[in-house]
């Protein structure tokens, strides 16, 4: 797995959660969003990717809203893989997010690198996307450009949400990474990726954990989160 990740910038770990666990987390996610009465925002740039009206339901810092997510981010099945990805026994949290793409109208997001949002000095930052239900292509699954992480940070367009130029990096040219409930997609924050519209009859439900080697310093004081700095595995060497 780790060799594939180093070469391609991503790796899909099949069945990290059992189907029953994924179903339970799906219920937790939808119940949380319902309690928060989350509005249905979308990115301005999404309107340039599709002619239909699209929506997205999401929240940050899920572990502060429900204990289930606190347990998940320290689950050794996850943190052991995360340690391999960052190349360190120590894994530190940057932030978490919940994303629900509603059936038939779930918002897309254009190709981008996460590094544009929170640059770091050593580029160990990575994300894990937990799939709580199946994510075939018609649900707007993640799409990637394998090996694009090797080119380093790219200039992004700020207008409408940080993204790469739409004509140079069309979603249609990227490789869809279809997943099943319980699968976890690990990807470098330098990997060019995006996702399409959910045109299916079912919601797409995911939980994102962004993490790093604690010795990887932020290059800018941006994108703070309530949980940033929490140790998920090992210890913080600088303390």
Explain what this protein looks like in three dimensions.
The chain is globular, with a radius of gyration of 17 Å. It is 18% helix and 23% strand. The chain has helices spanning 2-8, 19-36, 67-72, 76-86; strands spanning 10-13, 57-60, 91-101, 109-112, 126-131, 142-144, 175-176, 184-188, 193-195, 204-212, 231-233. By secondary structure, it is of the alpha+beta class. The chain contains four helices and eleven strands. The strands form two sheets. Strands 1, 2, 3, 5, 8, 10 and 11 form a seven-stranded antiparallel β-sheet that branches. A four-stranded antiparallel β-sheet has the order 4-9-6-7, with no helix packed on it.
Report on the biggest sheet.
Answer: 7 strands, antiparallel
Structural class per helix/strand content? alpha+beta
Low-confidence stretches: none
Rg measurement, Å: 17 Å
Number of helices: 4
Name the helicity range. 10-25%
Number of extended strands = 11
Give the SSE string.
Answer: HEHEHHEEEEEEEEE
Q: What would you call the shape? A: globular
What is the CA–CA distance across the termini?
A: 31 Å
State mean pLDDT (0 to 100 scale).
Answer: 91
Tell me the strand percentage band.
15-25%
């Amino acid at each position: 797995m780790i060799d594939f990740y180093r070469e391609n910038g991503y790796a899909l770990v099949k069945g990290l959660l059992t189907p029953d666990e994924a179903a339970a987390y799906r219920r937790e996610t939808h119940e949380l969003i319902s309690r928060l009465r989350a509005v249905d925002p979308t990115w301005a740039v999404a309107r340039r990717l599709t002619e239909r009206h699209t929506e997205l339901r999401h929240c940050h810092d899920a572990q502060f809203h429900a204990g289930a997510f606190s347990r998940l981010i320290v689950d050794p099945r996850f943190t052991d893989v995360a340690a391999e990805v960052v190349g360190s026994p120590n894994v530190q949290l940057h932030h978490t997010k919940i994303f629900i793409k509603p059936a038939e109208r779930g918002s897309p997001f254009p190709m981008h690198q996460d590094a544009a949002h929170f640059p770091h000095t050593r580029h160990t930052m990575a994300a894990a996307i937990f799939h709580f239900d199946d994510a075939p292509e018609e649900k707007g699954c993640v799409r990637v450009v394998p090996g694009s992480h090797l080119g380093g940070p790219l200039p992004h367009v700020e207008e409408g949400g940080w993204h790469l130029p739409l004509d140079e990096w069309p979603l249609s040219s990227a490789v869809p990474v279809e997943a099943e409930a319980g699968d976890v997609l690990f990807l470098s924050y330098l990997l060019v990726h995006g996702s399409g519209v959910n045109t299916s009859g079912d919601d797409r439900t995911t939980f994102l954990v962004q993490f790093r080697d604690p010795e990887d310093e932020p290059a800018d004081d941006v994108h703070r989160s309530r949980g940033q700095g929490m140790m998920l595995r090992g210890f913080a060497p600088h303390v």
